Amino acid sequence: MPAQWRRATPALMSTDLADRLAKVAAATEAGLEALLTDMSGTAERLVSAMRYALLGSGKRLRPFLVVETAALFGVTSERSLRTGLALECIHGYSLVHDDLPCMDDDDVRRGRPTVHIAFDEATAVLVGDALQSLAFEILASEDTDPDPAVRNRLVADLARAAGAAGMVGGQMLDLTAEGRFTADGQPLAMSAEAILGLQALKTGALFRFAIEAGALLGRATATEAHALGIYARLLGRAFQIADDLLDREGDARTVGKKTGKDAHAGKATLVGLLGVAQARAQLNEMVAEAQAALDLFGRRADTLRAAVAYVALRTT
C-alpha cells in the first residue's frame, strides 16, 4: 500500500472488505434475478439478452457504495439495495451501448462476448433501452423508500447522472475527443482539466449518484452530504485513472476486455497526458484525499476508506 495513503484501515488489511463486497454482489445478483424473472413470458429474446447483460458477472461496486454509504446512517441493506439495483441497471445499459460498433466497438466484456456479439446489434440497443426504463421503475416503487419526496429525488438525480449532464454527455465528449491525431500520428493533447471534466461526467457521475443516494436514503445532514460528495468525486477520479492504467499495463485475460485501446484510438486520458508514473502519483493522492474526506464519520467509514483503496489497487 502506498505510503501516501494515510488511513490504512483494518477493513482493507483484513478480509472484511472482500466479504462485504461479496455479500452485496450476491444480494445484487439475487435482486436482479428476481426482477428479470418477473418479466418472463414477454419478449423472451429480449429478457434473455437482459439476463445475459446483467447476471453472472461484475463487481457490483456501485450498489456496494449505495449500501455502505446508507449504512453510515443505520439504513438496512435490504432497503438501500433497491437503489443499487436501479443503478446497476443503468450501468449495465451503458456497457451494452458502449460496446456497440458505433461506439467503442468491443467484442469482449467481462471475459465473454458482448451482447451485440452474443445476440445482435438491434437486440443490444433494445436491451439498453429496457434496462434504462427498468431502473426508473425500480426507483418509483414504494418498496425503494416510503417517502415519495425521496423517491422523486432519487429518480431526478439518477436521470441527471445518467443523461446529457452526466454519463451520456461524457460519452459524447469522449467520442468527440477520440481519434484526433497530429500530422506525425501523435494524439492531440487535451488539458488535464478538460480530461478530468470529461471523466467526471462519463464515469464519475454514476459513482457520485451511488454515494449521494446512500446519503439521501440515510437523511444525511448538509455537512455529512458535503463530505460524502467530496469523497464521491475523488473516488470517481481514482476509478478512472486506475481503469486507464489497466488499459495501458493490464493483461486482457485478467482485465476481462481488450487492453491498449485508448492509445490506439487516440483517447484523452491522464495516463496518456502525464505518463504512467505521474498518473499513478496522482491516483495515490486522490485515495489519500478521499479517505481524509471521511474523517467526520470516524471508524464508521472504514469500509468506504477501504473501498477507494480497492478501486485504486484493482486488477480487473
Low-pLDDT sequence parts: 8-14
From the structure provided, what is the oligomeric state, counting identical versus distinct chains?
Answer: single chain
> In angstroms, what separates the terminal alpha carbons?
18 Å
Biggest sheet, open or closed, and with what strands and sense? Answer: 2 strands, antiparallel
Describe the structure.
The protein is an all-alpha fold and 316 residues long. It is 68% helix and 1% strand. It contains 17 helices and 2 strands. Strands 1-2 form a two-stranded antiparallel ribbon. Helix 4 (61-71) packs antiparallel against helix 5 (77-98).
Helices, strands, pairings?
Layout: H1 10-13, H2 16-37, H3 44-54, H4 61-71, H5 77-98, E1 108-109, E2 112-113, H6 115-118, H7 121-140, H8 148-162, H9 167-177, H10 192-202, H11 204-217, H12 222-249, H13 252-255, H14 261-265, H15 270-274, H16 276-292, H17 302-313
Helix pairs in contact: 2-3, 2-4, 2-5, 3-7, 4-5, 4-11, 5-7, 5-11, 8-11, 9-10, 11-12, 12-16, 12-17, 16-17
List its traits.
316 residues; mainly alpha; two-stranded antiparallel sheet; 68% helix
Short description:
The chain is mainly α. 68% of the residues lie in helices and 1% in strands.
